[in-house]
Amino acid sequence: MTSRIIFHLDMDAFFASVEIAERPELKGKAVIVGGKPDSRGVVSTCSYEARVFGVSSAMSLFQAKKLCPHAIFIECNFSSYRKYSSQIFNLLKSYTHLVEVVSIDEAYIDVTSIASKYGGAKKFAEIIQKKIREETSLNCSIGIAANKLVAKIASSLAKPNGIYDVPEGFEADILAPLPIQCIPGIGPKTGERLNEDGYKIIRDLKMLSLDYLIQHYGLRGYQFYKESRGEDLRPLNWEERAPKSIGAETTFEKDLKDETALTAHLYELTKKTASRLNQHKMRAKGISLKFKFSDFRIITRSHTFYADTHNFETIYEGVLLLFKKNYSPLSSLRLIGVSLDKLNDSWWQPTFWD
């Protein structure tokens, strides 16, 4: 039986990182997201430059101001955070539909069947990190393990902007020296009680029998027994849905402005996109072309077909039309992409235009 390979992806200081991506002049500065320092709110998140002063999530803004008086305080902008979150999760789903979105900045991905295609789990995690950074300017941390529990703990050990791979069979050894608060679900109150009972690290719990744990902690004791050994049989909760768009893109190693070379790349991207469309047994009525220029400026141009299609030649004609209409030979490109939208599942049914 093939062992599972689960990624836990956690965006680093997500809200603060989005604010910095939108306002590059904030880079390298202490940024605190949550509101004005004289308000009665709490810190939603903060940059790592603020964390070195002791600022943390859920702390009062007043206390954060005392610890880091030079910080820049920013109101939450959830529409912007949702936009970035959607972009990140759509990127993950371009690799596999086995994605469980946990929150706006966190997800599990089952890569068991595809990791080998990308050179193995760690190499694949590096590819995902790089892709997210290129597309959003944001960093993430990824934990790799055979189950969700250990993958989540591993991602916290990887922070910031790291990858932590826990080999199967070594879960208990790696968890053993960690504080018990590293186990997801052990909050301040439970952690305090366990500490008072003399259990400081996960190894302390692992040394206890199942009977003893259940006797002293009830059903939670059973969870302590399994968690301290790195055992977790929970499946990913994902829903297979028809995609709203299908696409492919490529980032060039060097900026490119040769039209012949760009056209060749467009041909390959269109072929890949049309193939994915047919794999989903769908047709498309809309097409978009994405340009990222050498100065990081991004534009997207769209075209609508007369009727739904899954025909490669028709799609490629639309791609070339958009390219010739919107690309200047004087411009250098870092990235180019093709995507299809306005999708429907009438792939099998001929239309009047066919």
Search tags:
single chain, 354 residues, alpha+beta, MutS, DNA mismatch repair protein, domain I, DNA polymerase, domain 1, Dna Ligase, domain 1, five-stranded mixed sheet, 12 strands, 38% helix
What does this molecule look like?
This protein is α+β, with helices and mostly antiparallel strands and about 350 residues long. It is built from 13 helices and twelve strands. A hairpin with a 2-residue loop joins strand 5 and strand 6 (about 105-110). The radius of gyration is 24 Å and the shape is globular. The two termini are about 45 Å apart. Mean pLDDT is about 90; it is low at about 345-354.
Euclidean distance between termini CA atoms = 46 Å
Percent range for helical residues? 25-40%
Main sheet properties:
5 strands, mixed
The rounded Rg comes to 24 Å
Shape: globular
Number of H- or I-type helical stretches: 13
- Our estimate of the beta-strand percent is 15-25%
CATH class of the domain at 246-344: Alpha Beta
Q: What's the overall average pLDDT, rounded?
A: 91
CATH H level, superfamily name of the domain at 246-344? DNA polymerase, Y-family, little finger domain
Class from secondary-structure proportions: alpha+beta
